[in-house]
Design brief:
Layout lengths: L6 H9 L4 H18 L1 H5 L1 E5 L12 E7 L4 E7 L5 E3 L10 E2 L6 E3 L4 E4 L4 E5 L1
Antiparallel strand pairs: 1-2, 2-3, 3-8, 4-7, 5-8, 6-7
Helix pairs in contact: 1-2
C-alpha cells in the first residue's frame, strides 16, 4: 500500500533539477513523449535479439530487440542488472544510427563490444 504523498515536497523536488524525483520524472516524460511520436516504438513489430558476452556466452542481463514498421527500425538495448554489462550483437553499428536520448553507446570498434552502466538503456534509430 502506498503511503500519503506530500504534494508540496514533491513539487519542490520536481522544481529542483538535481533532485532524484526530478531526474526520474523528466527522463520518463521524455521516454513517453518519444514513444508517442514514433509509431514503431508503440505498435511496431518486435524482433528479439540475443546479446552475448565478449567471450561469446549468452548475456541474460541485457534485453535487446528491434522495434520496426515498414518505414522505421529501432534497436533497443537495456541493461536489466545493477552492474555494468558488456555485450556483443550480430549487428554491425552504422554511422547513420542515432541514439534518441543523446547518450552515445559506449562501443569498442576493435572488439565489436558495447558497455552499458547499471540499468542503462539506449534507443537507437537504425
Amino acid at each position: 500500500m502506498r503511503g500519503k504523498i506530500d504534494w508540496e515536497t514533491l513539487e519542490n523536488d520536481l522544481e529542483n533539477p538535481n533532485s532524484f524525483a526530478s531526474q526520474v520524472f523528466h527522463k520518463i516524460s521524455k521516454m513517453v513523449n518519444i514513444r508517442k511520436d514514433i509509431k514503431a516504438l508503440g505498435r511496431g513489430q518486435i524482433e528479439w535479439l540475443e546479446a552475448l558476452k565478449p567471450d561469446g556466452t549468452k548475456n541474460n542481463a541485457l534485453l535487446v530487440y528491434i522495434r520496426k514498421t515498414n518505414e522505421e527500425r529501432f534497436l533497443i538495448i537495456q541493461n536489466l542488472s545493477s552492474s555494468k554489462q558488456e555485450g556483443r550483437l550480430a549487428l554491425q553499428p552504422s554511422s547513420t544510427w542515432k541514439e534518441l536520448f543523446d547518450n552515445p553507446l559506449d562501443f569498442d570498434q576493435n572488439l565489436q563490444t558495447f558497455t552499458l552502466k547499471p540499468f542503462e538503456y539506449v534507443w537507437i534509430r537504425m
